[in-house]
Amino acid sequence: MHVYPLDAKTKEGNPFWSLPKRPPTPAVFDKENVLHQQLIASTACLSAAIFKIKIPSEQPRSAAFKIELAEMATKFKVPDFVPSDAEAQAIQADVDK
Amino acid sequence: MWDLVDAKKFVETAVALAKENKVGDDELKEDSPLLRLFYLFPLQSQGVFNPLCAFLGGVVAQECIKAITQKFSPTHQLFYYDAVEVLPEFRVKEEVLDLEKAAEADKGATVESLFKNYAEKVAKTVERGDRSDGLRAVLGQDVVDRLAETRLFMVGAGAIGCELLKNYAMLGVGCAKKDEKAGKKGGSIVLTDPDVIEVSNLNRQFLFREKHLRKPKSSTAAAAAIQMNKELKGNIIARLEKVHEGTNHIFTDQFFEGLTIVTNALDNLAARMYVDARCVTAKTPLLESGTLGPKGHVQVILPHLTESYGSQKDPEDNTEIPHCTLKMFPEETLHCVEWARDLFGKHYSQAPKSALKLLEEGHGAKPTSSQDILALKEGL
């Protein structure tokens, strides 16, 4: 969205974001949302299993544990997005193809 | 059957009806195709032609299934199907009309001498009280003999194989016995299939029953064919070898050259290409066919006359999703699924693998290339 903002135009002057292209909208993490809880819990448990990290729960599939994990996730600080020219150029090249 | 007096009555009625319905005189001329059909229809109307029966049976069965399941539209229009091209030669002018004129002009001529041409035809179609009577009435003894003396090789005994083998049994293909005194090589059917019968085969491979589960397809199908036509006994050979590079000591060039025809009943492209190549080398005709769901194809390959199976190539499947659609502009649900699968693979398969690799290479060895460091970072 940094390279192609909502009002971006193609070389021909048409709006860049016209069908079938649809602009993405960020999903805001909501620890109350069951789907979000599930994503966090599944990702965490899968990674833990792969790296042989003990999962600190008797019932890793329980709703209570998922809520616990989602609560933890709110404390995680997502690094700020830093636009990079190199990446922007790569994306542009990709799109132009 | 082949009663000219009856046939003439039928033709008279048919011609009168045709004229009533304003069929032009040109189309009813003595050597017209229509008049030929008018004669052939009553002459062989009691015949039975197995392939046509099989086809019609299939159409009727499909309509029954539609009626029972209440799914799909029934055929509600006129259904027309013909196979006029298989009918024997019958020249109305020479074989009937000219002879009649000659009989009128020459009072001394006997019926036998005049209708010699026609009588020969009758002799070839006369009933013998055997299983081929129906076929004989339609195509004559010549064709019955040729079918019986056919040396046929069927590759595969699955869905198409069952259908084909049933037709061969009903037509008496390969039934002729070897007779060295008469110098006759006799007919034969060789079939081969390395597979055994599975539960999932039973719905469409109709020569197989539940009691045949885990038994070889080829020998089971051969036994079923013999049950249909006892004359096949001793003339049918069931093999279990796959036809490929590794078995060309069994299915030698000599074997292929000795065949009248090869029929494919295969389930894969590689085997089709291989059998096709062998047939081209041996100059043996090949009947190729295949099914996919409700679709099907059939190709007749004749040496020096048609192209071979390998001459045509299906266009490459171009269902690959472009990288940029997948990465940035997914349009369909499928794209999103594909994107997620890609990401999943990266996180849970690729990254741990490269991390593991680094661990295995020893603690002492320091990752040197930037690629290794990146992989390690991602892995952790």
Supply database-style keywords.
heterodimer, A: 97 residues, mainly alpha, B: alpha/beta, six-stranded mixed sheet, 14 helices
What does this structure look like?
The complex is a heterodimer of chains A (97) and B (380). By secondary structure, chain A is mostly helical. Chain A contains 3 helices and no strands. In chain A, 42% of the residues lie in helices and 0% in strands. The longest helix of chain A is centred in the middle third of the chain and has 17 residues. Chain B has a 6-stranded mixed sheet with strand order 3-2-1-4-5-6, sandwiched between helices. Chain B is α/β, with parallel strands linked by helices and 380 residues long. At the A-B interface, α1 and α3 of A face α12 and α13 of B.
Q: Report low-confidence residues of chain B grouped into runs of 5 or more.
A: none
* Average pLDDT, all residues of chain B: 86
Estimated structural class of chain A = mainly alpha
Distance between the termini of chain A: 18 Å
Radius of gyration of chain A: 19 Å
Proportion of β residues of chain A?
under 5%
> Largest sheet of chain B, described in full?
6 strands, mixed
The total beta strand count of chain B reads 6
Shape of chain B: elongated
How is the quaternary structure best described?
heterodimer
